[in-house]
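Give me the 3D structure for DUF1415 domain-containing protein.
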Amino acid sequence: MGDRGATCDNGDMNTSAPYSTSTPSDDEVIALTRAWLEQAVIGLNLCPFAKAVHVKDQVRYHVSRHQDWDSLAAELEQELCFLAKVDPEQVDTTLFIMPLALAEFLEYNDFLDWADRILERLELDGELQIASFHPHYQFADAQADDIENYSNRSPFSMLHLLRESSIDRAVAAYPDAAAIFEKNMVTLRKLGLKGWNMLPFVVTKEQR
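Predicted structure for DUF1415 domain-containing protein (208 residues):
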């Protein structure tokens, strides 16, 4: 991961490691991710803050084709630095999508810890934050097939890169974050697994 004192000004991303170019294409990955955002995250109102940045086209979709941790970390570092520097009116948040990597949730969780350490090493903790979404996401106190897990289940392994300033504004608008979580649980229980599997993006992914 490099020297502890490294910052966003230190060098370029290492892109020498080989990566896969197999299907799905980047366009297909982004289209399915966008459909998930529209139909599940916004459509089911799982995140009341997501619609505004989506409508304003302030969500950046970045697809990484890398599979090894070192290359993923280097590319993630570049995206964190980009988000820290770019005008928030242009890009408010980034979905870092890894369609070919971290298929196992436990490995993904380990990489998430590494991602947080990268954030600290870049001295961007306090400015940016990383949230987690995965096809097999499982809360610590949940069973694998519990519908509640689906609030954080996405078509592909991904990291959501957020600005702390955006989180602060969201909390000011919706101070009771616990109420949002509980509302999501109620929504998902009413929908059920059958209802979730009927969402168009799920059907599309199953047909790929």
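The first helix runs from residue 26 to 42. Let me know if you want a second pass.
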